[in-house]
Every structure is written in C-alpha cells, then in structure tokens.
Amino acid sequence: MTGAGAEDDIPLSERKTVTDFCYLLDKSKQLFNGLRDLPQYGHKQWQSYFGRTFDVYTKLWKFQQQHRQVLDNRYGLKRWQIGEVASKIGQLYYHYYLRTSETSYLNEAFSFYSAIRQRSYYYQVNKEDRCLCPLPGPELVVKKLRYYARYIVVCLLLNKMDLVKVLVKELSEEIEDYTQRFNTEDQLEWNLVLQEVAAFVEADPVMVLNDDNAVVITSNRLPEGGVPQLEQGMVVGQLTLQERWSPVKSQPRERTPHKYLLYKPTFSQLYSFLSASFKELPANSVLLIYLSATGVFPTGRTDYEGPYDFGGVLTNTNRDVINGETVQKRSQAQKEMHCLHPGDLYPFTRKPLFVVVDSSNSSAYKNFSNLFGQPLVCLLSPTVYPKSMQDQSQRGSLFTLFLYSPLMAFLSVCGLSSMRQGLWEKAQEFLHRAYGDIGQMITRSHSIDQAFLQFYGDEFLRLLLIRFVFCSATLRLHKLFRESRSFPESYPQLPKQDTVESSLVQRHILELAAMLDVQNLFYDNTLSLDDY
C-alpha cells in the first residue's frame, strides 16, 4: 500500500479490497506458473487445472475493474500491471486453442491482446521509474516484448497479415530501444524472432490484388461446401480425424481436429506426443502425422534392407558437445539415432494411420510394411526440385503449399507473383469443379488400394488426397520437372492412369494454365511425357 505510516487512516473496506486483490494476484501467479509442470500432451489431465486457473484470472480481472480507483490510490496499481493480467488471460486462451484446436479460443486471445495495445497498457513501461517499479527495467521491458511476440503469433494464425506487419514494425522499434538502453545479451535472440516472423509474412509467394492494387488477404480455412461431396450410394470408410469436426461455418465455435504442433522436437519428445495421440484416439478415428524435416540418409548398404535401413527425417539432436565438437556415439554400421525411421512408426500402424512426409528423404517412407492390416496411407513429397525452384525453398515447401493452397502453389510453379482478385476467384471456382472430377476418379477406380477409400469418408483427408493428385499431375505435366524424383509418391501407390496421369486431370490442368496464360510451361499432349 502507498503512504507508509498512514495505514491507520485507510478505511477498513479499502484495506480489505487491497488485501483481496493481493490474494487473487498471488493465487493467479501461483496457478499460472504451475501450468509449466503439466504434461504438454494428454487430453484430460490439464482440463481441471486450466479451469481453476482461468476462474481465478476471471475473478482477478473483474475485481480490478470494479475496484480500480481504490487500487490506484491505495495499492499504486499501474497500467502495465493491468496489461500483465490481460496478457496472461490471452495466453490462457491461446493454450486452450493449442490443447483443443478450437479457433474460438484463438479469437478470444486476439481480443485480449488487441485490447492491451488499444488501451496502451504497456505504453509507460519504457518510462517507468526504476525505484517505483517492482521489476528491474530490463525484465519489465522483456514482458512487453514477449507480449508483442505472442500477439504476432496469434495474428499469424488468424491470417491478420496487415496487422502483423504493423506489429512487427512496432516490435522492431521496441527491440532497438531495449538493446540500446540495457546493452543486454539477448539481442541476437530477439533479432531471430523478427527474422522468423518475416519469413512467415513472406511465405505466400503470390499476392492477390484488388482493383485498387491493394493486397487482398486470402483465407485457406475450409468453407462450408468447400470439399467435393460423396456420390450418392458411394460406399467409403467411416474413419474420421476426430469425433467432433465440421468445416468452418458462421457459428461462433469452429471445430477442427485436435492437434499437436511440435517445432524441431527431439526423438523422445516426438515419440511421447505420438504415443499420447495414439492412446487418446477414439474408435473409428485416424491418426494423422505430418512430418516436415531435413532428410537423414543411410550411411551404407546392408544385405537385409529393413525399416531402419533407408534413413528417415531428422529429429533435434541435442548431442553432447566437447570442446566445440559434436560427439558421435555410433559407428558407420549403426543407425542414426536422431532420426524418425519408418520402423519407428510401425507400432502406431495398429490403428488407422495417415502420414504426410515433406522431406528430401521422403522416399524412405514408401518402404512401409502394413503389419497389422489397418488402413495405412503415406503421401510423400518430391525429393528433388528443379534448380530454378530451389531458390524458393527458403520461403516454404512447394509440396506443402500444394496441399494447403493448390492455386497459390500452381501460380508459384508457373512463376507468377501476383494476380487480380477477379481472376483468382474464377480460378478457384474452376479448381473446385476439377476437384469433383478427381474425387470421382479416385472412388470409381477399380485398381485403387482400398486404404485410400477407407480414409475418403473424412472430408479433410478427402481434400488432402484430391490435392495430392492435383499436385502430382501438375508437376508431371510441367516442363521443368523432368526427373522422377521430382514427382510426389505414395504408399500404397496410386493407379497412375486413373489418377495422376489421367487425361481428364491433364485437360483440367491445361485449361487452368490457359486461363492464366501460362500454357507454354506445360506439355500439351501425353506423348511428350515419354520423350524424356
């Protein structure tokens, strides 16, 4: 309380207000810090603890709103402290999103982060009198920088790219001021944050422009009706990614499959999350694994080629370093331990498994064996790209772009960097019709492996399969893609004549190319495909 020695003059009710606020503040910090001890995976363990933490923060937020004047006068409540409470609530909503994948929580996090900026809660942080502030100068400014970083991540996930650019500029200025004032050692780390955000902002290789030449932010969330419907009477598997999922509608609670997002995990971390996901998988559900990582190649040939003899994708090494050199703990005859080998996924094939691998050694995963007879599909990226395409790899993978935004990938592979909004929408409508034909070819094929049809009942997996066929067919027709290693593959193999080399799919691709005036980049008859 402010005014030492004058405590006796403070009315009892106001003293109680300050005491109650301090209790709620301490309790909220205690509960929030305890979140770090919860396992990051697991669907049930976290819910009760999250609920208690959220309840306390809700009470704290309402309490400071109801008693703001008393807290200002008797406690010396500062605006950055209010901002800290709002920021913590935003973090709780964000973690709810990570745990449940429900975008409504992401929108709530955005609302709190946005209010912090609009109300300038952190504005005076850089000017706080160090003697009056409970935290030393650098630590308080770091709180502000972390708030900016979290706000930017939420905006990226919500595709609010115009706001991201504004926030990045503000964060850059804050980092520059911070490093000049305090001469800290974490300048490189904050500059790396800026670089990674810039990479995300520049990841979309194509700009969509309206009539005023302003950039239009396009959304790739699935709209209602955005997935080709099953033909009447078509019998496909009833497997789903989640028991509660529907495309984005107008309702405030948009549901998507629960997922875990791991950035450069160690093998132990990755396997722990895979095991938890496998354990939680409901009946008639699918485990989808998307791997995007550097390829690990085998060091030598062996007489027996098993599931650990083809390499795989790199996991975070965290190897021991002595005198600046990495300690290698294996001989040439041993396998790379910091690698997810195809054999490492075998235990998870006891349940339906759908795998996407985007890597320079994705082909290692075509050597799968389906040991347990459960539905199993692997979609595998090209392992080699034409030299003219390799310069774009730092901005994201072409294969992943085809699965995420096929039209943007098509434009990118054709060297187009911008497009008018009207033509973009026309091309999107054309693609949607083409997807319907591709879907019919998949379901009507007499030689297709039944595993593909087992997964076809789920709308998200259906769209992935259709986009995969479109990607593969496009690259096979493109004149720059001349090596077989430049084409996507799958396990089991798709019947080429019914899908990726179908004359109907090729005609759709050539019509789209003509619409965009880039037909000269593609072979215009199937005979040319056999000439190389």
The major pleated sheet works out as: 4 strands, mixed
Number of helices: 16
Q: Globular, elongated, flat, extended or rod-shaped: what is the shape?
A: globular
Order of helices and strands: HHHHHHHHEEHEEEEEEEEHHHEHHHEH
Distance between the termini: 82 Å
Strand content: 5-15%
Structural class: alpha/beta
Give the strand order, joined by hyphens, for the main sheet. Answer: 3-9-10-12
What is the oligomeric state here? single chain
Radius of gyration: 27 Å
Uncertain residue segments: 245-252, 320-328, 526-532
The total beta strand count reads 12
Mean pLDDT: 86
**Approximate helicity band:** 40-55%
Task: Describe the fold and architecture.
With 532 residues, this protein is an alpha/beta fold. It is 46% helix and 7% strand. The protein contains 16 helices and twelve strands. The chain has helices at 12-34, 45-66, 68-75, 79-100, 103-118, 137-157, 161-182, 187-201, 267-280, 387-390, 398-404, 406-413, 421-444, 450-455, 459-477, 503-515; strands spanning 207-209, 215-216, 287-292, 295-296, 312-314, 321-322, 325-326, 339-340, 353-358, 376-380, 418-420, 489-491. The strands form four sheets. Strands 3-9-10-12 form a four-stranded mixed beta sheet, with helices on both faces. It has a three-stranded mixed beta sheet with strand order 2-1-11. Strands 4-5-8 form a three-stranded antiparallel beta sheet, with no helix packed on it. The radius of gyration is 27 Å and the shape is globular. The model is unreliable at 245-252, 320-328 and 526-532 (pLDDT under 50).
